[in-house]
TrEMBL record:
InterPro entries in the cross-refs: ExbB/TolQ_transport, MotA_ExbB_proton_chnl
UniProt main location, coarse: membrane
Keyword line: Cell membrane, Membrane, Protein transport, Transmembrane, Transmembrane helix, Transport
PANTHER family: PROTEIN TOLQ, TOLQ-RELATED
Pfam family name, one: MotA_ExbB
Places the protein is found: Cell membrane; Membrane
Protein name: MotA/TolQ/ExbB proton channel family protein
Source organism: Asprobacillus argus
Transmembrane segments: 32-53, 133-159, 179-199
Bilayer topology term: Multi-pass membrane protein
Amino acid sequence: MLLFIQESKEIVENLSEEKTLSIYKLIMESGMGGLIIISILFLLLTIALYIYFERFFAIKSAAKVDKNFMNQIKDYVSNGKLESADALCKSTNSPTARLIGKGISRIGKPLEDINTAIENAGKLEIYQLEKNVSVLATIAGAAPMIGFLGTVIGMIVAIHEIANSGGQIDIKMLSDGLYTAMTTTVAGLIVGIIAYITYNHIVVRTDKVVYQMEAKSTEFLDLLNEPV
């Protein structure tokens, strides 16, 4: 009876050890190839998160425009106070204010020239908003492929061990290759998914700022087009 109880305890302990297999242990047992691949993926994840948060706060700041900004611009322009309007634009740190400021600096020229100047300034602002965002898209596509590369490496290692085993397959001999294959695939997919979600979120927020810029620019051009 005591022997049965001891054996039962050993089985439970073994099961507990198997269930508490940590991610760290999985990574460390994935072999040199797996460690290199996972290190690369971790670096890509760090870059992706840095770009995301840097762009998120930059775009959030760009989206902030005082609700009374355009009303003040209308009052200044209508009353011929162009210097005051230009000073207001310069004191407001936002893409919309810079576009309006560019238009104000061209007042007196044909409306088409003002519109062209605003469009050119808008392209520069959009370029600044989208800075490094393409890197997120690249990581989203490259990370799963790098993980798959680790899978292929792991399978090659496993097949090599089988070939050298002389027909006697030992699961312990295959463990390095199998750990490499599984952990790199999972890591690659996780990094790819995170980069893909963050990329799309940044794109959506950028589009909102661009629409805001277009709306305010159109409102400013309509103001200049109004009959005096």
